[in-house]
Every structure is written in structure tokens, then in C-alpha cells.
Amino acid sequence: CIREMKNLEVIYVGNNNIKSIPDWLTELQGIEELFLNYIGLTTIDEGLFNLNLKRLDLSNNQLSDIPDNIFKLEELEMLDITRNPGLKKEKVEDIVDFFSEDIVYYDNPD
Asked: Is 66 within 8 Å of 86 (Cβ atoms)?
């Protein structure tokens, strides 16, 4: 079971129709790279931001907001939030300003 793989560093669950993040995922403290693209996410479990992620791909979902806890991801080297049409311009700007335009992939919201 994946839940028991405490040394797992990369998880790719993209291209699945799961629509939510499994609870056990936030318990895997060794994860550095997490790919949650194309899964129909509408919300994000805030426990996700307690991980020491370096890469986080949330692209191609249905997110309308990203919790402010994202700013706890101090080790982040890449964040992809492209193609989430409901994200507000102000939130995208806050995220880009905090992490820098060099590591955040995003669409220019209207």
C-alpha cells in the first residue's frame, strides 16, 4: 500500500477522475514532488501544505481558490496553477509575488 511507503518522494496521480486528494496523502512526509494535474480538483486539503514539497502541479483542474496555507511551502521550487479558470486574479498575483515569477506557472487571469 502506498500509505506505508514513508520514503516516497514523487507521486503522480494526474489524469485520474478522483476529484479530491486522498487523506492519506498528507501523511507522507517524505513527498517532495506531487502532481495533481487533470484530476478535477475543486478544493485543496490544507494538510497538503504541511508537506515539504519542492514541486507541486495543480494545473488543469477546477480550482476557484488556493488556501493561504500555500505560503507555508517555503521549499517550493516549482508551482503550476495553469488552466484553473476559476482562480481569481488577486490570488494568482499574491502567489506569484510571494514565490516569484521564476517558479510559478500560471495563466494571466482577466
From this structure: no
Q: How confident is the model at residue 110 (pLDDT cuts 50, 70, 90)?
A: low
Q: What pLDDT band is residue 109 in, cutting at 50, 70 and 90?
A: low
What SS3 class is residue 84? coil
Instruction: Report pTM.
Output: 0.91
CA–CA gap between residue 27 and residue 4 (Å, rounded) = 10
Sequence-separated (6 or more) residues with CB below 8 Å from residue 53: 31, 32, 33, 34, 73, 75, 76
> 103 Cβ partners below 8 Å, 6+ apart?
76, 77, 78, 79
